[in-house]
Every structure is written in C-alpha cells, then in structure tokens.
Specification:
The complex is a heterodimer of chains A (about 325) and B (about 220). Chain A is built from 12 helices and 8 strands. Chain A is α/β, with parallel strands linked by helices and about 325 residues long. Chain B has a 4-stranded parallel sheet with strand order 3-2-4-5, with helices on both faces. The longest helix of chain B is centred in the N-terminal third of the chain and has 17 residues. The chains are: A alpha/beta (about 325), B alpha/beta (about 220). Bound molecules: iron/sulfur cluster (2 copies). One iron/sulfur cluster binds next to helix 8 of chain B.
C-alpha cells in the first residue's frame, strides 16, 4: 500500500506524530481559519477539522479542509454520523478526496441535544464502526456501501477513528478499539488525557490485545485555560476524566499565571505519554486557544517536525 | 404497549373552540393502562372542560364514551351514533385510534386528545419507558434482549459511544446508557462475544425509512 498523507508517512517512519485541531467558525468568515492556521502551520503533521463539534452549526469541515490545503497545511477531515445518512457521507467523501483531503477521522458524533439545534432530527444511519468499514471498502474494494463498483477514482483515505479510554464500561474500551481496527482504522486519536495512570492501564490492555501493532495511537492532550475550565471539564463534559489533582493545581494557581500553568500541565502530560508503550504520537486539541500550540510543542521538544518527501515511503505499509 | 400522555387542557380547549357538541372518546386498552385515555380520564377531562368552558360563558355539550379498542372498526362502530351526532370528536386513544375513527367516519371532525409517546413498558408505578422503535427487523438476539435502536440515543449497533459514563447516557444523567445495560447483561450471561463481533450497517428499509409499512397475511384473508 502506498502512503497518501504526510501524517501517514510520519507515523510509518516511526516518528512521534503530532496533530492539531481547528474548530471552524460559526459563520462564513474565512479569515478565522487563516488566523488559526497560522499558529499550526509547520508545527504539526496534520490538522483535524471538527465536524459541527458538540452539534453546533459551524463551517463545513470539508470546506475548511480545502482552505487548509490551499494554505499548505494537511487536514484530517472529521466526519460524523449524526447529520448524514450513508448516501450523503459517501458523496461528501468523494468530494473531499477530489479536493485533496487525504486523512479522514470517522466519528459517531455528539448527540444534537448538546448543540444549538436540540430540536433537530438526527440521522445516525451508521455508527462510527460501520462508517470505518464503509470508507475502507470504498478504498480497498473500490465499491460503494451498496456493493456497486466506483467507476473512476476511488477515495483512498488514511483512515482514523477516535477512542475514549475514560468512558464506561472501561473493560470494553480496548475491545471497542479492536472493533474499530478490524473495521479499518489505521490511526486513533484519543479523548483528552488528564488521568495518565488510567490511560496507561488502558494502553496496557490495548498492547495485550496486540492492537498497538495494527494501529497508530495518538494520545489526546490539551491545555487548560483556567480553574473554571478545569472544573467545567471535570464535572460537565460527558466522558471526560479530569482528576482532582489537576483541578486543584489550576485552582491554586494565581489567575494571571493560569494560562502558563495550563500549558505546563499539558507539556508534562505529553512527556508522560511518550513513555507509555504503544503511544505513537499526540493529538493536541487547543480549540479556541491555537496560540498555545507552538509553545506547548517547543517546551515538549517536538519541534521542528520531520519533513518526509512522499516518494521515500511509497510502497511501504 | 403504546404509551400516551394527555395533551394540555388549553390545547384541547383550543381544538374544540366553536363546537357545541363534543364527544370525548376513550379507549380501553393501552392508554387505559397508562392512565392517559381510559374511561376514568375521559370523565376527568369532561369535567375539566365543562368547567373551563362554563367559566368562559359558553354552553358546550360535552359527552363521554369509551370503547374497548379504538384501533378497530368493529369497536368504534358500537358508538357510531354518538360519533355522528358530535360536532367534534376528541379521541383519547393513541394516534391509531384517532385515525381509525377518522377513516371510519369521513364526515366527522376528529382531533387527538393525547400525544402518542412511544412503545414502552410500565417500569414502576407511574413510570413508563421506551423499549422498541418498531424497526421491523428485531435484533434483540445479539444484544441480550435490550434494544440499542430504541434505547441508545444514537441507535448505535457496535457498543457504547465515548459519552457513556457511570451507566448513564451522555444526553442526560437520568437516562440509562443502553450499551452499558447490554454490556452488563451479556457479561452476566457470558456472551460478550456477541458484541465483540462487528455488526454491519442496519437495513432500515423494514423500518419507517422504507415508507409506510403493511403486513398482508394471505392465509388469514377471507
Ligand atoms: S430491534 Fe427493532 S424490533 Fe427489536 S426491540 Fe429494537 S426497535 Fe424493536
Ligand atoms: S451514552 Fe450510551 S445510550 Fe447514550 S448515545 Fe452513547 S452509547 Fe448510546
């Protein structure tokens, strides 16, 4: 198999990968993207673009992906099952590939009750695992989900999925990851990690299942802006695990030093993750705080990023 | 059973505005069991409406009737006269009952007195909970008898999403996570293997997505 994306090359070459993330604006303002992109360009191997995150209407992830490509940044398009059925998803994927997108992250999506249209009709025609399988078959078997051949160019995405080691039931999480790998996931980006011991235990089980040899796992990290944000994440965000020590540390920090401390905690977590067997990189989520990313990565010693020309790894797995 | 809930009094009052003869028509089956539209509720609603319309200074003749099953023509036919005499029939059955009356009596104005809520189960006194979405192709054999289509907020078929926490669904801490229930039950039965297999995309054509459904049993037709 040939590598299609920079992210895939970085991972297959054995580098510790770094991905970033941009939340598109809740408007049609392209300048927001240009501004946010400037903090990430050259500092990360690829940039995720969220797909109407928390079910709030935002600029389409594929269109933002195209803007990033034009700015010389490699996107990871996020695709959720919440708002589209299998027909719409496949159609969007053909378009995304045609526009030059090469990485795709397959997600179920947050329920619309969180967002700004809680009375919307949702879709959930597929779940994330069925979506992964569909995308893999479009690439490897050159067929649409219905089994019909794709006549012409097929989308050949480097396929990713998400995993939340902190959701319940904990014992099932590694098994669910195995299902995603079986369905076609080649890389995994995890939920934000603040409880490192629990994540290590998760990774131990993942390695016991041999999954780390089949999929690249990028640990999710992100800087906390303030004590309030820490408390909010600890109590209000479903599926998040922010231990009391982390909240305390933010609470005890004087307000004017909060941001520095948030960045410091993030850097420490990255360093701890690098020591955990099976972790192939980090996914830095600093939504609405993209400015922090260069500093985090500098302090974590992850800059500069490797530059790998496409031809070198062609024909490698 | 079909679970329903009475519409707010004001909404019912607005629907019958202008009518002089109103028939409140109850149903003796599901909606009686869920205390929404049986004989007793018909009586209570009739008194409330009489009082409310009288306070407005209007003379409205509010009559009451309850049939055993409003979803079948032979039962609604028993009260055909009362239905035909009314200016308006407020059906306190589920949506099927409302439509049965409307279909049987094309010249009668029929309105719903209930909101038909879901297919559910009385889990404890005063509590009903959704159990089935009538998808037309039951897969409870894979999920330990717990329906992920009706009971998982995202109708997932391959295990709990990342929002499942402490046994509750991400949408609301009051809502059980169906996948936690499935996981617990299958572990108890030693059948977790059923959910480690990848479940393919569902064929929704047997569900409402295939258009209105109909069953014809030739062997039973006369
Ligand atoms: S699988 Fe379909 S038929 Fe079976 S309980 Fe669930 S919704 Fe009802
Ligand atoms: S938390 Fe559980 S019930 Fe809620 S959407 Fe996720 S898997 Fe479904």
């Amino acid at each position: 198999m040939t590598t299609v994306s920079n992210l895939q090359r970085v991972l297959t070459k054995g580098h510790f990968a770094v991905t970033g993330e941009i939340g598109p604006p809740q408007s049609a303002d392209a300048s927001v993207i240009t501004r946010k992109a400037a903090y990430l360009k050259g500092n990360v191997d690829a940039v995720n673009i969220t797909d109407c995150q928390t079910a709030v209407v935002r600029m389409s992830s594929i269109s933002v992906g195209k803007m990033l490509i034009d700015l010389g940044i490699e996107p990871v398009i996020q695709m959720t099952c919440r708002d589209r059925n299998r027909i719409a998803i496949q159609s969007d994927l053909l378009g995304a590939w045609a526009l030059g997108a090469r990485n795709l992250l397959c997600l179920t999506g947050d329920h619309q009750s969180f967002g700004n249209h809680p009375t919307a009709k949702n879709v959930f025609d597929l779940d994330s695992i069925q979506l992964l399988d569909m995308v893999r078959r479009m690439r490897d078997d050159k067929v649409f989900m219905c089994g019909e051949e794709i006549k012409g160019t097929e989308p050949r995405f480097f396929i990713g999925a998400a995993s939340n080691p902190f959701a319940d039931p904990f014992d099932f999480r590694p098994l669910r990851l195995a299902k995603k790998v079986k369905a076609g996931a080649q890389f995994i980006q995890t939920q934000l990690i603040y409880n490192v011991p629990k994540f290590s235990e998760f990774m131990r089980r993942v390695c016991d299942l041999g999954l780390h040899e089949k999929v690249y796992i990028l640990g999710g990290v992100g800087p906390i802006k303030s004590a309030g944000a820490a408390r909010y994440m600890a109590t209000k965000v479903p599926g998040m695990d922010v231990p009391a020590e982390v909240v305390d540390r933010m609470v005890k920090t004087p307000k004017e030093r909060a941001r520095e401390e948030g960045i410091q905690i993030c850097v420490e977590i990255i360093q701890q993750l690098r020591e955990i067997p099976g972790v192939a990189g980090v996914h830095v989520m600093a939504i609405e705080w993209e400015e922090a990313v260069p500093e985090i990565l500098t302090q974590a010693g992850l800059l500069p990023r490797p530059v790998i020309p496409p031809e070198i790894t062609t024909a490698e797995q | 059973m079909i679970v329903g809930e009475q519409k707010p009094l004001q909404e019912i009052k607005d629907m019958i505005a202008g009518a002089e003869k109103v028939l409140l028509l109850g149903c003796g089956t599901c909606v009686t069991i869920c205390f929404a539209g049986g004989e007793k509720e018909v009586g209570i609603l009739a008194s409330a409406l009489r009082l409310a319309t009288r306070l407005d200074g209007k003379e409205v003749d509010i009559r009451e009737a309850t049939v055993q099953r409003q979803c079948e023509w032979e039962y609604v036919d028993e009260v055909a006269d009362q239905i035909q005499e009314a200016d308006i029939v407020v059906s306190l059955a589920c949506g099927i009952g409302v439509q049965t009356v409307a279909e049987r009596f094309p010249d009668v104005w029929v309105v719903p007195g209930l909101n038909t809520s879901f297919l559910g189960q009385p889990v404890e006194q005063g509590v009903w909970s959704e159990r089935c979405a009538a998808c037309g192709n039951c897969l409870l054999m894979y999920t330990g008898g717990i329906c992920p289509i009706a009971r998982c907020s995202k109708s997932l078929l391959n295990g709990p999403c990342g929002g499942s926490q402490n046994g509750k669904c991400e949408i609301n801490p009051e809502v059980d996570c169906a996948w936690q229930l499935i996981y617990d039950r299958l572990s108890r039965l030693g059948r977790l293997d059923l959910i480690t297999e990848n479940m393919p995309a569902k064929d929704w054509s047997t569900s409402r997505d295939g258009g209105p459904r109909k069953i014809v049993r030739e062997d039973l037709r006369i």
